């Protein structure tokens, strides 16, 4: 089959074939109100020093919160978090209602969704890069936690879960 020109529809189709974890990125705005959005555009930038990036749409309220606080948390959702993923993908008034979370000690109070995550990382924003309709926010992790739960995954507009085998020892 020949390759086709990549427009926004083809791009969504192509990237839909890439299995992703699902995360909720959170921060607090100038008034201390929590903000957050669902994302699968998260990546490790480097291990030494530890850096990660999140892609944030220019229209997202959370971008203003991250810009103001210079901090955010990444909450990698656990299996069963489909409703939470959908809630944070929307534009509802109080996305945090009924969601167990705590304010980050290391990321200016960004909400940490400890009860619904397989891992959380609290970051200080160290750089902002404007790219097309998004801003890439580079974060320096300040604290993190890992929980023994199966992960929520997303592939071809469907949710699933993944539980890997026993953890391997980190490489030196």
Automatic annotation (TrEMBL):
GO terms for molecular function: FMN binding; riboflavin reductase (NADPH) activity. InterPro entries: Flavin_Rdtase-like_dom, NADH-dep_flavin_reductase, Split_barrel_FMN-bd. It comes from the Bacteria. Residues 15-161 form the Flavin reductase like domain. Keywords: Oxidoreductase. It holds the Pfam family Flavin_Reduct. GO terms for biological process: pyrimidine nucleobase catabolic process. SMART domains: Flavin_Reduct. This is Flavin reductase (DIM6/NTAB) family NADH-FMN oxidoreductase RutF. It comes from Streptomonospora nanhaiensis.
């Amino acid at each position: 089959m020949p390759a086709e020109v990549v427009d926004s529809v083809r791009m969504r189709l192509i990237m839909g074939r890439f299995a992703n974890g699902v995360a909720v990125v959170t921060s607090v705005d100038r008034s201390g109100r929590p903000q957050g959005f669902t994302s699968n555009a998260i990546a490790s930038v480097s291990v030494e020093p530890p850096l990660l990036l999140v892609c944030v749409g220019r229209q997202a309220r959370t971008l203003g919160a991250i810009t103001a606080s210079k901090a955010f948390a990444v909450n990698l959702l656990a299996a069963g978090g489909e409703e939470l993923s959908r809630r944070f993908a929307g534009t509802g008034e109080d996305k945090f209602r009924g969601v167990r979370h705590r304010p980050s000690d290391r990321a200016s109070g960004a909400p940490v969704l400890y009860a619904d995550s397989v891992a959380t990382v609290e970051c200080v924003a160290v750089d902002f890069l404007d790219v097309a309709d998004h801003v890439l926010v580079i974060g320096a992790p300040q604290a993190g936690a890992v929980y023994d739960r199966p992960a929520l995954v997303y592939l071809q507009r469907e949710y699933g879960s993944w539980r890997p085998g026993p953890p391997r020892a980190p490489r030196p």
